[in-house]
């Protein structure tokens, strides 16, 4: 086999592997969406039906009109949005400030703090359930959305600090020094020079925080006793009953849950590109 043929064969194999990975990642999403439009006969059949032969909106209509646990499905969507957006905003502020301090200032225990962040990430959230539950009760945040926001910020903050620290450290100090020479204050330098350059990392951590808070189930189930405070993952659990599972409603509700995540990503993904070139000074 000639080198050119070997190179072409390698490209074909690489493209084939990429197609397989794409199918593996997209197929569950397609199956969820397609199942939400299938009739019960198509859902509970023993035959494999890749495409709905008969479309129906009954599952989506039932989820939207009947609600869950005596409440409208939009109430749970609102609760999930409040928790997720609150986690993103608060977590991004604390993560960026902490990452800037770690990357730009030398202080005693900095290396130990970074190691501690990694150790915290290794601890399963379930192991922290009881102590966090007791602390939330002690702070008077039980059965409140603010309590869920605080918990989710704590769960996502170590990852956010670690990732943003890399972005801040990659920004040359000469850019900040040039701004200082031009008379800019530290806050102005941070806002007009450093912040635009670390915006891609901030977007990445925001996406991670949003998805984590949006899909969180255990703490939302334990820390909320009133059904009006449930989030969407908790609400979907009510479709699992002793007499059977309403897969059509589950898939319809899951499809509704996916839409805000996609919209959030589309809104912030532009910042990942513009932030790469913004804030630089002419040399």
From TrEMBL:
Keywords, sorted A to Z: Cell membrane, Membrane, Transmembrane, Transmembrane helix, Transport
Transmembrane segments: 12-33, 81-106, 113-133, 145-164, 193-211, 217-240, 247-268
UniProt-listed Gene3D superfamilies: MetI-like
Membrane topology: Multi-pass membrane protein
InterPro entries to which the protein is assigned, alphabetical: BP-dep_ABC_trans_perm, MetI-like, MetI-like_sf
Subcellular localization, as worded in the UniProt entry: Cell membrane
Record flagged with keyword NAD: no
Domain of life where this protein originates: Bacteria
Domain called ABC transmembrane type-1: residue spans: 77-268
Pfam families hit by this protein: BPD_transp_1
GO biological process, one term: transmembrane transport
GO cellular component terms, semicolon-separated: plasma membrane
Major subcellular site: membrane
Family: Belongs to the binding-protein-dependent transport system permease family.
Name listed for the protein in its UniProt record: Carbohydrate ABC transporter membrane protein 2, CUT1 family
Organism listed in the record: Streptosporangium canum
């Amino acid at each position: 086999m000639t080198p050119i043929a070997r190179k072409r064969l390698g490209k074909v194999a690489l493209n084939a592997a990429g197609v397989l990975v794409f199918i593996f990642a997209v197929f569950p999403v397609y199956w969820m969406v397609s199942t939400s439009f299938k009739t019960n006969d198509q859902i509970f059949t023993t035959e494999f039906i890749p495409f709905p032969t008969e479309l129906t909106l009954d599952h989506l209509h039932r989820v939207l009109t009947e609600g869950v646990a005596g409440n409208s499905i939009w109430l749970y969507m609102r609760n999930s949005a409040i928790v997720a957006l609150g986690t993103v905003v608060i977590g991004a502020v604390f993560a960026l400030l902490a990452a800037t301090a770690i990357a730009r200032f030398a202080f005693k225990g900095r290396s130990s703090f970074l190691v501690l962040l990694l150790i915290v990430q290794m601890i399963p959230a379930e192991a922290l359930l009881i102590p966090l539950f007791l602390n939330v009760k002690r702070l008077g945040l039980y059965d409140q959305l603010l309590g869920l926001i605080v918990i989710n910020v704590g769960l996502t903050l170590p990852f956010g600090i670690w990732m943003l620290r890399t972005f801040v450290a990659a920004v040359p100090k000469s850019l900040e020094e040039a701004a200082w020479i031009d008379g800019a204050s530290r806050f102005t330098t941070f806002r007009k020079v450093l912040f635009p350059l670390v915006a891609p990392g901030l977007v990445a951590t925001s996406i991670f925080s949003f998805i984590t808070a949006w899909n969180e189930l255990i703490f939302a189930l334990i820390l909320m006793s009133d059904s009006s405070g449930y989030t969407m993952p908790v609400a979907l659990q009510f479709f699992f009953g002793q007499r059977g599972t309403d897969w059509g409603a589950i898939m319809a509700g899951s499809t509704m849950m996916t839409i805000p995540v996609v919209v959030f990503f589309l809104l912030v993904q532009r910042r990942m590109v513009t932030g790469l070139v913004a804030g630089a000074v002419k040399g």
